[in-house]
Design a protein that fits this description.
It is a single chain. 26% of the residues lie in helices and 17% in strands. It is α+β, with helices and mostly antiparallel strands and 282 residues long. It has two domains: 1-31, no CATH class; 56-281, Cysteine proteinases (Cathepsin B, Chain A, Alpha-Beta Complex). Strand 6 and strand 7 (234-239) form a beta hairpin. It starts with 71 loop residues before the first strand and ends with a helix.
Length: 282
């Protein structure tokens, strides 16, 4: 008995004689991929607001700033992102920092992956995790993590400063991604995100904001259809509507690995931003 041919894209069996119907190898489109993220860890606590937090728009020049490109992708074709322990621990606030370093360093010419022991050390020191006490695996607050990163570095990688774009202002969001190599965000994920290949707004109880929990990711690209983030060791797409409904905080990071490329945009007052951050945080 001959082996049943399968579609090279979705793996579904191909009916006899349909190999030539289209590039899928079977008539009609491939069925949706079965996605199950329900076993994945989250770990972002509710946003903490600090009136001292710097706002990205303050450092735009009085003259019109450059328009961000229509699309950006800083993922650099990386295929091995690494879980950064977020498959077993609720350390997404640290894992997202590690993914930011991967993106920045890859675009600077040599990809660097922060080792798991450094991720674990940061989770312990910055989020209070104690491996001897499972109840302490309680995630972290993004603002606290960024302050710790700026003060202590992550595996030798400095965070020089950060400032918050308005997450509901597409220009701010695109500007932060295009000119700072990505944006560190928090999502109040709905239960529907557990089974979606592309994260999108959903109706009903499963689509309620935060019905699954809080999650930190690093967003490294966008286009007209949506944005690209890194989570659980892989690239994940979300629609702009999903961002608008579920993103509850966003932080533009100024990392040393990124600035090595000299990519600070013309007209953006980087010196004033760093000076102000030193003034408010010491």
């Amino acid at each position: 008995m001959s082996e049943v041919a399968k579609c090279g894209l979705c793996g579904e069996p191909m009916p006899p004689g349909e190999e030539m119907f289209n590039y899928h190898g079977h008539s009609g489109p491939c069925p949706p991929k079965k996605i199950d993220h329900s076993g994945m860890k989250l770990g972002k606590r509710l946003p903490r607001r600090d009136p001292r937090t710097l706002r990205l728009a303050k450092y735009f020049a009085p003259a019109p700033m450059p328009l961000p490109p229509d699309s950006v992708d800083w993922s650099k074709g990386i295929t091995s992102w690494g879980m950064m322990l977020n498959d077993n621990l609720g350390d997404c606030t640290i894992a997202a920092c590690g993914h930011a370093i991967q993106v920045w360093s890859a675009n600077a010419g040599s990809e660097i992956t922060v080792p798991d022991d450094a991720i674990l050390a940061a989770y312990e020191a910055w989020d209070g995790y104690d491996p001897k006490d499972p109840s302490s695996d309680d995630g972290g607050v993004e603002l606290d993590v960024l302050n710790q990163w700026r003060a202590n570095q992550l595996a030798g990688h400095p965070l020089l400063a950060y400032a918050d774009p308005d997450p509901q202002n597409d220009y701010h969001v695109k500007f932060a991604i295009a000119y700072f190599g990505g944006v560190y965000i928090g999502l109040a994920l709905p239960l529907s995100a557990q089974s979606q290949e592309v994260w999108d707004v959903a109706d009903g109880a499963n689509g309620e904001t935060g019905s699954w929990g809080g999650h930190a990711v690093f967003v490294c690209g966008y286009d007209a259809d949506g944005l690209t983030c890194i989570t659980w060791g892989q690239i994940k797409r979300m629609t702009w509507a999903f961002w608008a409904k579920y993103c509850d905080e966003a932080h533009a990071l100024i990392g040393q690995d990124w600035l090595r490329q000299g990519k600070s945009p013309d007209g953006f007052d980087m010196f004033a931003l760093v000076t102000d951050l030193h003034a408010v945080t010491g």
